Amino acid sequence: MERLPDVSSLQLLVQVAKRGSIGAAAHDAGVSQPAVSKRITALERELGVRLLDRSRRGSALTDAGELVTGWAGRVLDELTVLTDGVEALRREAAGQLTVAASLTVAEHLLPGWLGKLRRSLPELHVGLQVMNSMRVCELTRDQLVDVGFIESPTMIKGLRSRVVARDRLVLVVSRRHPWARRRRPVDVTELAATPVISRERGSGTRETLEHAASRAGSRLVAPLLELGSSAAIRSTVLDAGGPAVLSELIVAADLAAGVLVEVPTDGIDLTRVLRAVWPSTATPPAPAEALIRCALRSSSGRR
């Protein structure tokens, strides 16, 4: 083999193995199915082995493909260790406060908190990463950021947390949706049986809704659509794409303007807490403690 396979081809191979088809892997990667098929074929030529058995029912790994996929997974894991480690070294050298936050917190609350922090610590450089709550927890646990902010009701092991704010999820539809004119609330059974436009797994908003339905004795059906941001969900709902459950922070202006309609719910508690998280084996650095205090003061002022 004259050259090493590129990382993106290995990632696609691992995803095909995980999802069981080239089409599903293409959907996850946001590229066309022919493009993924072409990349896998090129990888097979490079390696000189057949990796997949293709059929109408999907794509199955060959024996050689099983081995190569296992090796590829380990290579990708080590590459993540490398890139995260280098980022940690860079952050340490820069002496900056690094923050990871879920989308809702990052877009609607953190700007105000950071503004307060900058007024008290004007020389501080803050780096912010925005991602879903599960990834925030992972980066914080591995001490790749100084502090995280999540909206998820659960945490992974190895973290401590503090409630810094509260939020409410609301069921919303466009003015053209039939639910916009209904007189009675949507009960938990009907909501659970209705496909809604949803965030991806690992999102705090989706996890909050799933936990709330479970506490009420229901289980959600598969989403109508899975989108990677609340802004994308909001736009789809505005285009009458279907109902969605979103943070009140995100849709407050749309509800006030009447372009979205809140549909009352019954039998399900959609309130949630927003939390700061940090490794259980470490104490947050002083700038992170100061940011948490800014969040608490802002939350107290909103009540």
TrEMBL record:
Pfam families linked = HTH_1, LysR_substrate
Q: What GO molecular-function term can you cite, just one?
A: DNA-binding transcription factor activity
Which residues are in the HTH lysR-type domain?
Answer: 5-62
Asked if the record carries the keyword Transcription regulation, the reply is yes
The record's keywords, sorted A to Z, are: DNA-binding, Transcription, Transcription regulation
Write down the superkingdom of origin. Answer: Bacteria
Gene3D superfamilies for this protein: 3.40.190.290, Winged helix-like DNA-binding domain superfamily/Winged helix DNA-binding domain (1.10.10.10)
Query: Does the UniProt entry include the keyword Transcription regulation?
Result: yes
Q: Which InterPro entries match?
A: LysR_HTH_N (IPR000847), LysR_subst-bd (IPR005119), WH-like_DNA-bd_sf (IPR036388), WH_DNA-bd_sf (IPR036390)
Q: Which family does it belong to?
A: Belongs to the LysR transcriptional regulatory family.
Q: What name does the UniProt record give this protein? A: HTH-type transcriptional regulator CysL
Question: Organism, per UniProt?
Answer: Pseudonocardia autotrophica (Amycolata autotrophica)
